[in-house]
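Model the whole thing, not chain by chain.
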Amino acid sequence: MTGTDRLSLNQATVNKLSLAEAAALCVRHDIPAIGVWREHVARAGLAEAVKTVRAAGLHVSSLCRGGFFTHADPDARRAAIADNRAAIAEAAELGAGALVLVCGGLVPGSRDLPLARRMVADAIAELVPVAQRSGVRLGIEALHPMFAADRCVITRLGEALDLALAFPADAVGVVVDTYHVWWDAALLPDIARAGERIVSYQVCDWILPLPANTLLGRGHVGDGCIGFPPISAAVAAAGYAGYVETEIFNEAVWNAPPDETAATVRARFPLVF
Amino acid sequence: MTGTDRLSLNQATVNKLSLAEAAALCVRHDIPAIGVWREHVARAGLAEAVKTVRAAGLHVSSLCRGGFFTHADPDARRAAIADNRAAIAEAAELGAGALVLVCGGLVPGSRDLPLARRMVADAIAELVPVAQRSGVRLGIEALHPMFAADRCVITRLGEALDLALAFPADAVGVVVDTYHVWWDAALLPDIARAGERIVSYQVCDWILPLPANTLLGRGHVGDGCIGFPPISAAVAAAGYAGYVETEIFNEAVWNAPPDETAATVRARFPLVF
């Protein structure tokens, strides 16, 4: 259960590689699954992307990402829904375990958090039947509160879960990403409460100091402050037995040779459990 | 209730000034209260500091700060308690409305959040009788989760409140600082639940992008993303009628002429309500 047979490499960790190159990297390092990003799928073309991951024998643990629902302009909100429908179709073709949703920050020009949260809920409600028809599960990801203003007003796992619980379990779940939620005193009870709603488990470490671009402050497992084993144990006890994605946004990691990065990800994986 | 008769200038906003200079600034700008920092009190000497604020006719809305309880070495923990006893004595002499506690991050060398949280609770328990004898209220401040690793493992108002509720109300309360807690979906209910436990209300704005040193990313009220009126209304409804401190850590604000800063603080104050 804790061997590298559950390891997935999220493509963002080696984001200078094309999908074909990232897939080949996984094969070289005996990593059985990959978290795929839409920008790379678009570059390859969907049919070619599907062929690439199938030929490599890789499971697609997640497609990143849908979301960004919060817009003042109704046309922009409709465009976001259309884009998310396309993402659901791609996730279905790729056989992805989940479509990860980064829901969006404050509505531009507004300081109204409840308004932004209502827009998120409304958008997800609209996507639920699409997801159900396609057999794709949407994964609401709580982002760290430092991204609340500009990227995601859903800031805690418990909040993501309360939102998910308003919808059918076959359509909407939650993503547990250690980087975003490790600090939360309610994390372990919220994971237990999430149970079967957990559709993705992503890991990377919280390192200090934060870089100027706080999006890029993530570290290899073991390089930072997060105590992974209690979180992983809670995720397992909740019933999640799927892939564990390593997803690292970090300039230095991106500049490292990809084979070195993949080897480090593999070597550090046991520290997660 | 919403006039500048409730305004307090936290000294950190003009941190290049001595206590005497900051007090004179408050008088010049008709600001009736000041939040004082211990480093400035130490520089002036306690007796002189007390004389300065009394002569200026200023109320001391808070003393910043005690805390930093989380240490691996028992001697270091004892030293922290001794330092906090001294801070309580200073707060009593200054007639401060509260001693603000920044409780400390992870124990150095450890990734154990619950351990750090237990150390915080144990330290506060030890300080409660000291605070009660001195007539000083300790204010547990929840810091933004981005500081959980290195400064404060208490990351939400609700968590600070649950901790405070374990102790007598005359000894332990909570600090509501908009910068740290604005993002929390449970903020308004937690403020209502806090009621008389609110011992300090501090305001400043969340501005983007975050600077390289994330400690210094705070902005003047109105320059950022926070919707203050619903928070202020909740704080008032909870029963808090004390001073409202503007506390801004920001390199550019520090480099601005202090009279300009004080004038801006005053001019922006109505936006809080």
